[in-house]
Amino acid sequence: MSRIAVAGAGAFGTALAVALSATREVVLWGRDAPALERMARERGNPRLPNVILPDLLTITGDPDEAFARAGTVLLAVPAQALRGLLAEQGALLAGKPLVACGKGIDLETLHGPSAAIRQAIPSARPLVLTGPSFAADIARGLPTALTLACADPAEGERLQALLATPVLRLYRTTDLVGAELGGALKNVVAIACGACIGGGFGESARAALLTRGFAEMQRLALALGALPETLMGLSGLGDLVLTATSDGSRNYRHGLHLGRGEALEERVTVEGAATARAAARLGRRLGLDLPVTEAVAALVEGRSDVATVLRRLLDRPLRAE
Hints:
The active site is at residue 186. This protein is of the alpha/beta class. Helices cover 52% and strands 12% of the residues.
């Protein structure tokens, strides 16, 4: 079956559904019935202004309608909500390719999305779709390149052909761990970079944080079995450059607000906040030195402020790069 279901009617899930529905049958599923009814009636999502939802895109809150006939399901839900969705809809998702699109590390299990899929639904085939991308760009049809990770090369090649569009270019890898960790950990560094600018420490300090943060991403990912070349690709460095330098990034904006001492945005999912806490715990468990990650964890937990954590980073012992 070539029908694609997208689970999660937020900005990113809707954007993927819009992009894919141009050439194939797509159904978008979500939980908020009134919001879904409004989207279906008005053919738009308030989180994607000026984007018209194609008439051929089906919008539903009925999981049977969404998943029963789908050959492939994209899981565009926040990382901290993924296990709940898998447990709830496991019977309908069993045996299918499940493409995780959220970027984070589960705060309770300290696992990425592919492990969550394998544990919850052993018969499912996990994939990861990640890389530098803003929902608005995808929905507007702007050129975007992403990484699609799948342990089975043949399955990965088939899904690459299924999910690619003329403006959505997919690069394939078998390194699930590296792809999902690159997408998760760059959000932590993005918060740090936003806090640096918000706190008035300047562009040069942000460049240093981005670079040293990327070194930490590599350190942790390699310790968990990732391939170094994956972190140097779209799912690592590419996504980091976008997320840590643009006001369009929710994680970067979160850092800006923290640095300025401003109220945080309400009803906005900031994956990097939970991931910082999870990554810090992983680093301690593995005996790794992750000072930027620890600093962001302290910030998001309210244990410190921007001036203090940045001063601690600058006061660390001098060493070779």
